[in-house]
Amino acid sequence: MAISEKDFETLSNNVSELRRSLSQSKAAARRLFLALLLISLAALGWSIHVGNKVNAIEDDLSNNWRRSVAQLASPKSPAQLQAAVTSLRAQIETAKAQGTPPDQEKAAAYSRALSRALKANPTLPGAWNTAIQMVDYRFAPETQSVASLPNCLNTPLNQAANAASSQQPQPIPAAPASGVGEGVHPQQQGETLTVQNCRLALDDANFGSSNAAKILANAASRDPKAGYSVLEMSNAYITYSGGALIPIREIHFRICSFNIEPTIEALDERQQSIVSQLLEAEETNGTLQLSDVK
């Protein structure tokens, strides 16, 4: 069947219209694609920008404590040092209130810097009490049941002190394998006492009547040269309230916790010595020299 000229013209117009529509659709699609591409590139650029900002902020925060440590150890002015001490105490008090455990790397760095600051400025207002706060925070006990621990100076002795009254050297009993409060025994003719899982007050006023005092007295009666007493402690809770120190010359501690009572008055030489040594001690072990503390 032949197509009339009119029908052919109509068909041609429809084809032309369809071609224009397709062309317009392709152009719109290209524009849409370009727009989406630009938006994606802009979003990617913004993400990179934000990421860089976040990283810069995190780096600044991570390095902020190092700057604070540097200001304590090597302040540019007395005002900067005083501000650093005040800031450190606020940080410790906030962490304690929030129950945040210490970051031992940071705490050790702050402790060493604070110790250096105190050596150069022993009368700096508030610095010693900040040091006490640092020691108590850094060496805080992991449990609150430390009050129920037995007194290290009165733990079971396997009758070693009484047997020594004959003034003859006695066999050194073996340390028990376990047991809370057990393990006080004389070593090296009574010069060293070993204790574990107990509590000790460095200014215990009842030391003279303790089992540890009896051991040391018996050791001295056997050998007057055995006067340098050493206390080896592990997993113990050690406190100090500022009183007269027990007559122990040296304490070796391992995995122990400490509590130094703060004071509103200036710290005397005994308190300063104890705090200074603990500021510079390692986290898990250290030594307290008491022989030269008056």
Structure description:
The structure is a single chain. With about 290 residues, the protein is α/β, with parallel strands linked by helices. It folds into two domains: about 65-140, no CATH class; about 145-290, no CATH class. The protein is built from seven helices and eight strands. The strands form two sheets. The protein has a five-stranded mixed sheet with strand order 1-2-4-6-8. It has a three-stranded parallel sheet with strand order 3-5-7. Helix 4 (about 125-140) packs across helix 7 (about 270-280). It is elongated and about 140 Å long. The relative contact order is 0.09. The model is unreliable at about 50-60 and about 155-190 (pLDDT under 50).
How would you describe this structure in keywords?
294 residues, alpha/beta, 2 domains, five-stranded mixed β-sheet, three-stranded parallel β-sheet
What's this model, at a glance?
The chain has helices at 5-73, 78-98, 104-120, 127-138, 160-163, 211-222, 269-279; strands at residues 186-187, 192-196, 199-201, 230-234, 237-240, 250-254, 257-260, 285-289.
Q: Spans with pLDDT under 50 lasting ≥5 residues?
A: 50-62, 157-190
What number of structural domains do the residues give? Answer: 2
Pattern of helices and strands: HHHHHEEEHEEEEHE
Largest sheet, in brief, is: 5 strands, mixed
**Share of residues in strands:** 5-15%
C-alpha end-to-end distance: 128 Å
Overall 3D form: elongated
Structural class: alpha/beta
Average predicted confidence as pLDDT: 75
Number of strands: 8
* Number of continuous helical runs: 7
Helix content: 40-55%
Gyration radius, rounded? 37 Å
